[in-house]
Design a protein that fits this description.
CATH topology: Aminopeptidase
Strand order of the largest sheet: 1-2-3-4-5-7-6
Number of domains: 1
Largest sheet: 7 strands, mixed
Order of helices and strands: EHHEEEHEHEE
Structural class: alpha+beta
CATH superfamily: Gcn5-related N-acetyltransferase (GNAT)
Helix content: 25-40%
Strand content: 25-35%
CATH architecture: 3-Layer(aba) Sandwich
Length: 169
């Protein structure tokens, strides 16, 4: 059970990188061999996310880090163009990236998204076509598939959005 979500600190970096390593292995075992390759996300990239205040860590009731993600309020340049669909709205939003779990606790992704909705009621997220686990989570959480976006390296991602009606920004 997730007891706390807080900003990642530099001291958390080894645990965060270990969580990403577990998540990469999990993706490979579940048919997603082409996402997060070549050591992505790198330690230097996560350091930048920590410095920018975008990286968060999920702790269980014992205070053990069991998940991590990035929450970024404001416009995401990769979301400026969407193909084969459209965003639900053009309201201010936050994006969620790089959700990863250590596998030691269930419900990490759900806890991350619920926390994100408490920060902003309009969330955009994207995932790799082969990441059926994340697609299932997004469907269960009632995100709407909006179309295709392309990330900076030119590869496509499936784009989703959810506007919570009960939350206020």
């Amino acid at each position: 059970m997730i007891a706390d979500i807080r900003r990642t600190t530099e001291a958390d970096l080894p645990e965060v990188m270990a969580i990403y390593a577990v998540a990469r292995d999990f993706m490979r075992l579940n048919g997603n061999a082409t996402q997060w390759v070549n050591g992505y996300p790198t330690e230097s990239f996560i350091r930048e996310e920590i410095a920018a205040g975008h990286s968060f860590i999920c702790e269980n009731q014992s205070g053990e880090p069991v998940g991590t993600f990035c929450f970024i309020p404001g416009d995401d340049p990769t979301y400026s163009k969407i193909y084969e669909g459209e965003w639900l709205n053009s309201d201010p939003y936050a994006s969620v990236h790089r959700i990863a779990s250590s596998g030691k606790e269930k419900g990490v992704a759900r806890a991350c998204f619920e926390w994100c909705f408490r920060q902003c009621s309009n969330i955009r997220v994207d995932t790799h076509r082969d990441n059926v686990v994340m697609q299932r989570i997004l469907e269960e959480m009632e995100f709407t598939f909006c179309g295709i976006i392309y990330v900076s390296n030119g590869t496509e991602r499936l784009a989703y959005q959810k506007k919570a009606v009960s939350n206020k920004r």
